[in-house]
């Protein structure tokens, strides 16, 4: 059975500051200290509505602007009376796990995730460890624009302290949720590419403690990202792919993005494993382990994921794009597993957020217990061809373009879903057209059984969107 959810996710009311995954922009241009200070003031004011004193965890990835943005943001929190615990550099999911561990009231991550080094951003996090979405963010944004900040008295300003145990607690939590003995017995060989990001302070150490033979690449924290940009695309992972091939035998590769909430895998022969394959592979394992259950994913995910979930007796629920949306729906629906096609997997047994290190440990566990290679496991997942492209679209034209596209598709009589943008169901595949929540573009996803059909669908609907934008 397949379900689709629109509950509480009105894209027409998306906040002006916050996109699908926090606030992001070019440092000292869009993402300035002034903006960070204002967001801190607004967040602290919002937090004080329910409690006079609040404890907020703050951490960052390795970007060169991390301290500038972090301390401007923290100044805003402190001036409203919130206490701040600075966790330094650590993976986003490590900070999110720390919120529950320390029983904090909220958290914030200074990161632009996979974006280029010139970018930075702020993600706000609930006490559950889940990133905030529309309703609360709209209230925080309203406070920001109205400048109605609740400043504390001189004798009630917050205090800042430092706690660097988040990564250690996070590693131990992951180890307790996998079959450590099975992995250590298998002695897997892993080449890990940390992309000079936050994963560098975690992933190599976790792998060592799992009993792996580890080869580390780009494991020096460096916010310039000198080796390659922090998005784990195939073209950015040439060094990792070559290293896996050089190692030969049973070695696999793993790559993180800048804040290490995603993981992309390279099979033993050096093949790049797209995120939808990993999502499907792990989904099959989780549904089988739980003897069924609900799987939640974004509307952009490949059909291969639905195929394996249904085959194992599970049910699929589709949501709008954005890992916080998927995570909130997983919590609400008590799903057994979920995630996105970009390598962002969510394991509710640990926490409701994308988790690159947990994904890495689970894949190693599946390999160890099944006795199969990563290539063999991936071969069990049906193959589809997914093409992604984008079209520039001014912010002020986005909504009209979307509505015009939907109207034209309805006139053509094709099945269409409007959970997020417009997903057109065709006899030879599907196409999803949606406005980006973080950039002035429309993203176009097309999927079919073969690459040529997928490419043709992509080009056809890209042209259609370009025509609509030009006419508006």
Question: How would you portray this structure in words?
Answer:
With 472 residues, this protein is of the alpha/beta class. The protein contains 15 helices and 21 strands. The chain has helices at residues 33-47, 66-79, 92-101, 134-146, 166-175, 180-186, 203-209, 238-247, 275-289, 303-311, 323-333, 356-370, 374-379, 398-412, 451-471; strands at 2-4, 23-26, 55-60, 83-89, 106-110, 119-125, 160-162, 189-193, 213-217, 252-256, 263-266, 272-273, 293-298, 314-319, 337-339, 345-346, 385-392, 416-417, 422-426, 429-435, 441-448. The strands form four sheets. The protein has a six-stranded mixed beta sheet with strand order 2-6-5-3-4-7, sandwiched between helices. A five-stranded mixed beta sheet has the order 1-14-13-15-16, sandwiched between helices. α1 (33-47) packs parallel to α2, α3 (92-101) crosses α5 and α14 packs across α15 (451-471). The chain starts with a strand and ends with a helix.
Which key features would you list for this structure?
single chain, 472 residues, 15 helices, alpha/beta, 22% strand, six-stranded mixed beta sheet, five-stranded mixed beta sheet
Portion of residues within helices? 25-40%
Q: What separation lies between the terminal Cα atoms?
A: 39 Å
List low-confidence stretches: 6-15
- Biggest β-sheet, characterized? 6 strands, mixed
With strands numbered from the N-terminus, the spatial order across the biggest sheet is 2-6-5-3-4-7
Which percent range describes the beta-strand content? 15-25%
């Amino acid at each position: 059975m397949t379900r689709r959810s629109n509950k509480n996710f009105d894209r027409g009311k998306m906040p002006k500051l916050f996109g699908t995954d926090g606030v992001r922009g070019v440092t000292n241009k869009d993402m300035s200290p002034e903006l960070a200070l204002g967001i801190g003031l607004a967040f602290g004011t919002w937090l004080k509505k329910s409690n006079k004193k609040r404890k907020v965890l703050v951490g960052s990835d390795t970007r060169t602007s991390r301290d500038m943005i972090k301390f401007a943001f923290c100044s805003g929190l402190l001036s409203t009376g919130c206490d701040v615990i600075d966790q330094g550099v650590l993976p986003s999911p490590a900070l999110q796990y720390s919120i529950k561990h320390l029983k904090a009231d909220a958290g914030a991550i200074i990161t632009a995730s996979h974006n280029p080094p010139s970018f930075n951003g702020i993600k706000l996090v609930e006490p559950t460890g889940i990133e905030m979405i529309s309703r609360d963010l709209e209230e925080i944004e309203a406070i920001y624009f109205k400048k109605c900040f609740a400043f504390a008295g001189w004798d009630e300003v917050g205090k800042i302290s430092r706690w660097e145990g988040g990564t250690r607690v996070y590693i131990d939590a992951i180890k307790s949720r996998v079959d450590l003995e099975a992995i250590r017995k298998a002695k897997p060989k892993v080449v890990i590419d940390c992309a000079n990001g936050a994963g560098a302070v975690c992933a190599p150490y976790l792998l060592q403690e799992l009993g792996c033979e580890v080869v580390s690449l780009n494991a020096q924290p460096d916010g310039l990202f000198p080796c390659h940009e922090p998005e784990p695309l195939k073209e950015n992972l040439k060094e990792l792919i070559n290293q896996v091939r050089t190692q030969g035998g049973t070695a696999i590769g793993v790559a993180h993005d800048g804040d290490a909430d995603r993981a992309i895998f390279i099979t033993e022969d050096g093949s790049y494993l797209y995120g939808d394959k990993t999502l499907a592979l792990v989904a099959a394992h989780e549904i089988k382990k739980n003897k069924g259950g609900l799987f939640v994913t974004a509307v952009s995910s490949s059909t291969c994921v639905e195929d394996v979930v249904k085959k194992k007796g599970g049910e699929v629920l589709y949501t709008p794009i954005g890992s916080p949306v998927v995570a909130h729906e997983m919590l609400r629906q008590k799903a057994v597993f979920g995630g996105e096609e970009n390598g962002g997997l969510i394991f509710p047994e640990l926490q409701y957020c994308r988790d690159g290190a947990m994904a890495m440990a689970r894949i190693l566990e599946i390999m160890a217990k099944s006795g199969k290679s990563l290539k063999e496991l991936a071969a069990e997942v049906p193959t589809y061809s997914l093409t992604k492209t984008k079209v520039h679209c001014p912010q002020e034209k986005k909504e009209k373009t979307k509505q015009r596209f939907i109207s034209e598709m309805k006139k053509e009589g094709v099945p269409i879903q409007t959970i997020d943008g417009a997903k057109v169901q065709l006899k030879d595949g599907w196409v999803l057209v949606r406005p980006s929540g973080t950039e002035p573009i429309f993203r176009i996803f097309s999927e079919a059984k073969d690459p040529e059909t997928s490419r043709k669908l992509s080009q056809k609907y890209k042209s259609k969107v370009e025509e609509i934008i030009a006419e508006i």
